[in-house]
Amino acid sequence: MKTKYISTLLLSLFSLILFSQSLENKINELDHYIENGISLWNPPGLAVTVIKDGEIVFKKGYGVRTLGTDKNVDEHTLFVCASTTKAFTAAGLAMLVDEGKIKWDDHVINYLTDFQLYDPYVTRELTIRDLLTHRSGLGNTDYLWSWMKISGDSALYKMRDVKPTYSLRSSFIYQNLMYLAAGKVIEKVSGQSWESFLKERIYSPLGMHETFATYDMVKNKENKADAHIDFEGEIIRIDQLIADEIGPAGSMWSSINDIGKWIQFLLNNGIHEGDTLISSKNFKELFKPQQIIPANEFYPTQKLTKPHWTTYGLGWFQHDYRGKMVQFHTGSLPGMVAIAGLIPEENIGVYIMGNLDHVELRHAIMYAVFDLFMDGKITRDWSTEFKALYTQNTKTDIPKRIANTKPSLPIDKMLGTYKHLQYGTIEITKTKKGVQFNLNNTVKGSLSHWHYDTYRIAFDVKAYGKAMVNFRLNAKGEIGYLEVFGERFDSIKH
What we know:
single chain, Lipocalin, globular, alpha+beta, 2 domains, 22 strands
């Protein structure tokens, strides 16, 4: 009997050793894969954490916080979470549903009495669930916060002037300002600011002491990543775009040390150390498919992953991968990226942060983690394939220049003020620096003649790249309006 017991014990120890060796091999392979990916994509810095079967099995920073310095990224370096913030906002609402203070299908105007959209029917019928699923009928309205120096409340107010792009719940277009409205519902119902609600109800219970709701809370912290872009083949640092005015949609900052705790919590079905923070019913609601996403609104990655279906939950993109349901969400601000990915059925989670604009190595690492921890091997070179895919999909808005052309009128006749009801005001002026473009005193640049009545803008903020302005004449042979970003701004003063 004693011999049998010893044999069983030895077998258990042997199995444990094999498991440890297997895990160590996976970690080493992943680390090597990430290093190779960094060599290909060239982000200044990156941070990755992996959760498997409830444990954080990998957590590492790579590179530097700021290019040209020796400020290394570590487990505690703060990166912007950007739109992965949305899952926190949805989780906060789930907690309020648990408390009976709201219902998912309550009308928004029951709580935000001043809330108004262009279509009275949509104003009346829009629900809290609609706020979280990008199906309000509105097109992208990010210009209201990124192009204008106005408050989040003012941006929401201006939504009443935005005409619908499609009918309510009939399609899907990503919509940040509806998440701002969702955060306002949290504030109205809880009596707390969105920031303090998240800290009290999520950050503190999970021990996330390196997570902050806004940039304003981290701006003076030393161990923080800076934003970078690839500008004409050179990686340069840029000023951080601040998303605090649309906080519930994308303003959070966190470290890889902290964000792994959030992924653990999600893989544990809303329970932390035996304490149920979100009921099973409403936790499942967060991850249930709520809205079908048309192929043209999904990620280019679908060309390689070839999903059979694409949907959106409450703060989560969804698709099938190798017969399993993937829950994921990217986060992007100019110069900074993030991605959260889960396969709950396999108890696998991953979160990646980086400080280079749209460095899609994040997608490659996510699928490599899924492969590695499902089958023990990475099935394909996601990094190289995604690099080719995204390079192929890079578009330029600069048309081929037609030589030896002249504008219809001298530039002095084009100077003046141009206005758009929704997008604001453009001023075209002439200074010692040349002809200047100024949109809402926020987006600025210099104009140079391209061909005919088309001019190119070289923006002061290099992250904006370049764009074209077309001046259009009226029947009198005067400048009637200009076109930029696909929109018409009418002349109001010359």
